[in-house]
Amino acid sequence: MKFTLKARVLAALCAGLAAAPAAFADGQPRQLTASAKLYKQYFQEAAKEFDVPVELLESIAYAETRWISHVPKGQLKKNGEPQIEIDPDPHHGMPPSYGIMGLRNDTYFGTSLTQGAALIRVSPAIVMTDVRSNIRAAAALLSQYGARKTRAFPLEDWEGAVARFSGIPQPEVAQIYTYEILTAIRQGREDSGYKINQRHVEMEKVYGKDKLRKLSARRITVETGVPDPKISAPDFLDAPAKNK
């Protein structure tokens, strides 16, 4: 399977495309759909079962799929839940992701699908198509990557686990992913099909002042063609020095 580094980076940046908070014409939040309410319950159950922050599960699902389950071609279920049918062949150079949590099984992003399925002792096929199992598999992985962290730990301490969950091998690029996940929690996200509980996150504590300024810029660039790409913010300008 061949796909360029540029295409791979786009996967890391996809969370940024969904980063803007939902806006409502009447200024009022919409009522959650029946499916979204059910998913909120699944997130709560998985967070409790595997002792991980529910906000991380909600935000990862938002960044990956907007809470819409991605199922293999030919396996759509007529259960009233929002679903997208995907082709198992790479799309525009990108390998597919599965379920509401965007789990993967490829040579670049890793085998979160099969690993998660093994942790909850079900088949990968079930994790692909069953939303509750998909969320449980992701929660089990996040717990494993958290190295004995619990829900009682600050969200800032979970950044490394989220980076590993992303499957992005370059640390600098993985931070783009984790920044979007934590930003969605810090600001909150809500629409009829999803709701992320808002919670305070000390972003500077996670990334440091200089890195945070880059990550929060309106536009960032990522090096290509190098094993360990760096990110930069070409549009960022330092504030002019104040006259003494």
Describe this structure in words.
With 244 residues, the chain is mainly alpha-helical. It has one domain (5-20, 28-204): Orthogonal Bundle (Lysozyme). It is built from ten helices and eight strands. It has helices at 5-17, 34-50, 54-65, 112-120, 124-129, 131-145, 159-166, 171-187, 203-207, 209-215; strands spanning 69-72, 83-86, 97-98, 103-104, 189-191, 194-196, 221-222, 231-232. A two-stranded parallel sheet has the order 1-2. A hairpin with an 8-residue loop joins strand 7 and strand 8. The N and C termini lie far apart (59 Å). The model is unreliable at 1-20, 22-26 and 236-244 (pLDDT under 50).
Keywords:
single chain; 244 residues; mainly alpha; two-stranded parallel ribbon; two-stranded antiparallel sheet; 10 helices; 8 strands; 45% helix; disordered C terminus
Alpha-carbon distance between the termini? 59 Å
What is the highest CATH level, the class? Answer: Mainly Alpha
Mean pLDDT: 84
Looking at CATH, which topology would you report? Lysozyme
**Major sheet attributes:** 2 strands, parallel
